[in-house]
Design brief:
This protein is of the alpha/beta class and 417 residues long. It has 16 helices and five strands. The longest helix has 37 residues, at 214-250.
């Protein structure tokens, strides 16, 4: 097996196309990381952070920020005060507020939907703002204007209820002092808020809950672009490894190898080892390029970033290797890996954020490895140590799926031949 690995590496190092992707993509990725670009325009959002659901049957988990505590709100009030309360709750980065209009539904119908969502949706809490919500809050009797359905054992539930009670108490206090209507109360509350320091809860779960600074957002965007470039190199280097297998099969080298004591498992394990070594080589080239750039600030520790790149490359290198072997043709493999690279980079949000994309697109994005590695990078930017466990789980999961599917595909191909 060691001899097969050495021979494969020697053949690859004589391949000009392989050397190009081995050297060019890490250099280009390092250059992209060194660029200072303001991406604020791509991440601008509306003043309201409330996520609007088309109707109450839509699942909040598909649109809400899964790293935050998702609150699905059945809003039958639609009043000025309900708008203020929900916006204030959404401003706290620990909560992701998803609202649906239920003004045309009875209380019994809302309760029935809540019972269904308790099982079908993955929201942390369900909040029902009744039609008389505004009047009950102004009267200081808000218990009769709201209904909270607890559907999880998340410890943030208590914090959510405390924050909600605090907001409602503030409304009553201002109303008592001003004696005005709901518009006057909201105006008084906003006047007070302008004089108070900003209150912000930061979740340690990543994504929107980490509340990245603008500089970190720019760094994360550049990392996404670098991912897009270097994964192209990993994919085509994997195809180069698959090319050696295809040529050895066509030239009967594989048959002669099978006549020795080396089994097919050892043969393909040697090719996987070659792909593993190539990932290390590309990561080392990237490390040299990054080290040569003075004043480079990625926002992430160099060793952690290189680990992310290596594991991402291991996934794509293995994928292209097995894909090339199953297709049995170099040109078809090139088409296939290029299609995989372009589509996966697009759907994973490497080029632009998918916050406002359709539910189907968001669901598909979770199937792409780059999506998860970008989330890991965001956690690392925020200083969250849970990024390492997430990185390990994601890598192992994808490798198990890819190798398992590749093994089944190779077995079926042998039976056909």
């Amino acid at each position: 097996m060691i001899s097969l690995t050495k021979v494969s590496l020697k053949l690859l190092l004589r391949n000009k196309g392989f050397l190009f992707f081995l050297l060019a993509t890490p250099v280009l990725s390092a250059f992209i990381l060194s660029m200072k670009v303001d991406h604020a325009i791509y991440y601008q959002t509306d003043d309201s952070k409330i996520i609007e659901l088309e109707d109450c049957t839509k699942k909040a988990v598909y649109l809400g920020d899964t790293s935050a505590y998702i609150v699905k709100v059945y809003d039958a009030s639609g009043s000025v005060l309900s708008e203020w309360v929900l916006n204030k709750m959404a401003d706290l980065s620990m909560f992701s507020v998803c609202r649906c209009d239920v003004s045309d539904m009875t209380e019994e119908e809302v309760l029935a939907q809540a019972k269904k969502d308790a099982f079908d949706d993955r929201a942390g809490a369900l909040l029902y703002l009744k039609e008389n919500f505004e009047q009950t809050v102004l009267d200081g009797d808000w218990e009769h204007g709201i209904q909270i359905y607890t559907v999880s054992e998340d410890q943030r539930q208590e914090l959510f209820e405390t924050e909600l009670a605090d907001l409602l108490s503030r409304i009553k206090q201002v109303q008592t002092l001003t004696g005005g209507d709901s518009h006057g109360v909201v105006g008084g509350l906003e006047s007070i808020d302008e004089k108070m320091p900003e209150k912000k809860l930061v979740s340690l779960a990543g994504k929107k809950g980490t509340a990245l600074t603008q500089e970190q957002t720019d760094q994360m965007t550049q990392i996404g672009y670098a991912f897009a470039i270097i994964t192209l190199g990993f994919l085509f280097c994997g195809v180069c490894v698959a090319r050696t297998v295809i040529e050895e099969q066509n030239n009967k080298v594989f048959t002669r190898v099978m006549l020795t004591k080396v089994g097919s498992r050892d043969y393909f394990l040697s090719k996987f080892t070659v792909a593993f070594i190539i990932c290390i080589m590309q990561t080392l080239v990237l490390m040299v390029c990054l080290s040569a750039m003075k004043g480079l600030d990625m926002g992430i520790n160099m060793a952690s970033f290189l680990l992310v790149i290596f594991l991402l490359g291991l996934i794509f290198g293995t994928l292209s290797l097995l894909l090339g072997i199953m297709l049995g043709d170099v040109m078809s493999s090139n088409y296939a890996v290029f299609a995989i690279w372009s589509i996966s980079a697009l759907l994973s949000g490497l080029y632009f954020p998918l916050d406002d994309a359709a539910v189907t697109i968001k669901t598909l994005s979770y199937l792409m490895p780059q999506k998860w590695f970008l989330s890991v990078s965001e956690l690392l930017l925020a200083g969250d140590k849970s990024a390492y466990s997430m990185l390990l789980y994601v890598t192992v999961a994808y490798l198990i799926v890819i190798i398992s599917m590749g093994g089944v595909g190779l077995k079926m191909k042998r039976q056909e031949t």
